Amino acid sequence: MENSNRETILFYKEIKPLTDKRNGPMLVRKHSTEELLVRKCYPLYLEEHLVTLQKIKHAHLPKIEELIVQDGKLWLYEEFVQGRTLNEVIQSSGILETEQILTLAMAVLEALGALHNKGLVHRDVKPGNIILTNEGNIKLIDFDAVRTVDGEKESDTVQLGTMGFAAPEQFGFAESDERSDLYSLGVVMNICSVKEYPKKRLTEDSTLKGIIRKATKLEPRERYQTALEMHLVLRQQLSRKLLAVKQAKKNTVSKKRPIRIYRANWSRTNIWLKNKYVRQFIFTSSHLLKGVSTFFRKYVPGFRTATMWKRVIALFWYVISFGQIIGSIVYQPTGSLRIRELVESLFIFILPVILFTNFLDYQRKFPLLSSENKVYRWIGYGLLVLFWVVITKGGLELNSFIYRSFNQ
Fold it and tell me: What's its EC (predicted)?
């Protein structure tokens, strides 16, 4: 093993190279656990990105076991994912069914969402980097092109990506971000459907066509803006597709039954649902609930993540804050005192939620808060705390002054 690390030799045994490339991925076995891992060599400038990646634990991403720096190189040991690449599946099986494409894309979006939440962009989403495991899972692999989103650069410092799958901005037209990965996934979906790039031949599948067209727009602002937004659309389309298939099967079975048996199976509930006002109420209520759910998952801090404990803490905080605000207002004897208490509660309870939970992704626009350097980010958060203290103190004093002026 060239430029071997002595510590690595003690803990890992080389099995075989996985490609013919020099310093390419090597299959190794860990002595202590007999676990098979893949060793890869990365440039040192990716160290901070890969350290961030190592902290992400997700079902659709390979687990990173260890990072070792030796002789100016960065060695990464990650989970050995056994299965076939999507590229191999397409070559051997032909095009995929619509339901398979939607399910696969949703899994990749969940992996991308986990990366994007940590400020990372994959930048090389393609069939060769998507693995269908022997257990039926889907994994997004290969982080050679990963980078963090700066938000202030005119273009990427290092221009990487696979021709045909990479978004236009990855070739120097602008800085790549989360929407670049969504562009690549749109191309992958089209390849799965018709084995062609969208710009050459867009799929005619009615379920996929609109999704792929939007995902692969040349202008990033015209695409889906987040992995969650695209995931919600795919999930809705998959539900409709499955419902249509189920209904088609039901209609086929119904045609084979005598009419008298079909009528005999009508229940009181079926008859009740025939009322147009009841159906309209159910339709409106379901869409309203879906809209509220989408709003919470997209905008409300604490609910934008799929992590349950974060949602529980957020819910606890909102209940306590709401109770405190309502309680402090209700028990005031006059209207002016109620307004004063409301303003104070907004500064003390609501303002920190907006500032410290990256509401509407505002932190990306501030260099210190969006910096890749941890020291700069800590300085940014320190200044943010100072800003909150100063603005709260000033706001409370101004609120008290206004209250005294109106009550003298």
Answer: 2.7.11.1
pLDDT band at 19 (very low <50, low <70, confident <90, very high): confident
Contact between 212 and 189 (Cβ < 8 Å): yes
CA distance 258 to 255: 8
How many Cβ atoms are within 10 Å of 181's Cβ, its own excluded? 28
Architecture of domain 84-233: Orthogonal Bundle (1.10)
Q: Which two tokens stand for residue 282?
A: 């159910």
Q: Is the dihedral of CA 225, 230, 232, 233 positive or negative?
A: positive
Task: Give the amino acid at 356.
Answer: F
The yes-or-no answer to whether 6-79 and 84-233 have a common fold is no
* Closest residue by Cα to residue 52 from 36, 43, 64: 64
Query: Per residue in 268-322, pLDDT tens?
Result: 445 445 555 666 666 677 667 777 776 666 667 666 665 677 778 777 777 877 7
In this predicted model, what pLDDT tens digit does every residue of 194-232 receive, in sequence order? 999 999 999 999 999 999 999 999 999 999 999 999 999
- End-to-end CA distance of the chain, in Å? 84
R_g (Cα) of the chain, nearest Å = 27
> Which two tokens mark 51?
């350290």
Query: In CATH, what is the architecture of 6-79?
Result: 2-Layer Sandwich (3.30)
Cα separation, 408 vs 404, whole angstroms = 6
Provide the whole-model pTM: 0.58
**How is the chain split into domains, by residue range?**
6-79, 84-233, 270-299, 308-406
Distance, in Å, from the CA atom of 19 to the CA atom of 153, rounded to the nearest integer, reads: 35
